[in-house]
Amino acid sequence: MFWEFFATISAGLAGAGIALALRKFTLSKAPKWLIPSFAGLSMLAFQIHSEYTWFDHQSSRLPAGVIVLKTVEEKAPWRPWSYLYPQTLRFIAVDIERAAKNHANPDLVLVDLYFFERRQLAKRVPQVIHCGLNMRADFTNLLDIPQPGKPIISKEWKPLKSDDPLRQELCHV
Predict the structure, then answer these.
(1) Contact 92, 116 (CB under 8 A)
(2) Is 91 helix (H, G, I), strand (E, B) or coil?
(3) How far is 88 from 53, CA to CA, in rounded Å?
(4) Spatial CA neighbour of 110 closest among 84, 135, 129, 133
(5) Long-range contact list for 58-61, CB < 8 A, 24+ apart?
(6) What is the pTM of this model?
């Protein structure tokens, strides 16, 4: 966050410098209001650029075996340009390469989900996916792991839709 603030201020100073150069080249005939206008427009342009490139930058830094599962595009009234070009400010990634099948019940897969959000730290949430019953649960020490062929009666397990991208990636449907 500090570096983004520093880069925004630098963009403003660069914009003000361009306006000062314009004033110098026009022998001070260009209006003085160009200086703060260029500074403000430069900072705004930098922020818009960084918000639109954030997802591509973050997803390119994911290690091998971690794939983007879902993106969330957002529109906001205080960012009117987002209605024309929605911004991806959140996404979910899954670590397919380190997914582990349960030895006792091969229908169960333990996997890490990563939740990314702009200007937030990534959150890691371990999940257990039951491919046979199309269900998922947060992995905790208290999670009731079902035996093969037995129904799930625990409230911790939530159903997965048949077209859920997590199920499709892990269960090879």
Answers:
(1) yes
(2) strand
(3) 9
(4) 129
(5) 58/91, 58/116, 59/91, 59/93
(6) 0.82
Quickly tell me which residue has 């991208």 as its tokens.
Answer: 165
Type of residue at 50: S
User: DSSP per residue over 61-80, as a string?
Assistant: TSPTTEEEEEEEEE-BTTBG
Residues constituting the chain:
173
Beta pairing partners, 127: 111, 138
- 């035996």: which residue's tokens? 147
Return d(Cα 5, Cα 13) in angstroms, integer.
12
DSSP 42: H
Partner residues linked to 111 by β-bridges: 127
Rounded Cα gap, residues 167 and 157, in angstroms: 14
Render pLDDT for 114-160 as a digit per residue (tens, 0 to 9): 999 998 999 999 999 988 888 898 888 877 777 777 777 778 889 88
Name the one residue in this structure whose structure tokens are 């205080």. 78
Under 8 Å between Cβ of 118 and 54? yes
90 neighbors 115 (Cβ within 8 angstroms): yes
What is the structure's pLDDT at 153?
Answer: 72
C-beta of residue 98 within 8 angstroms of C-beta of residue 124: no
Amino acid in position 101: K
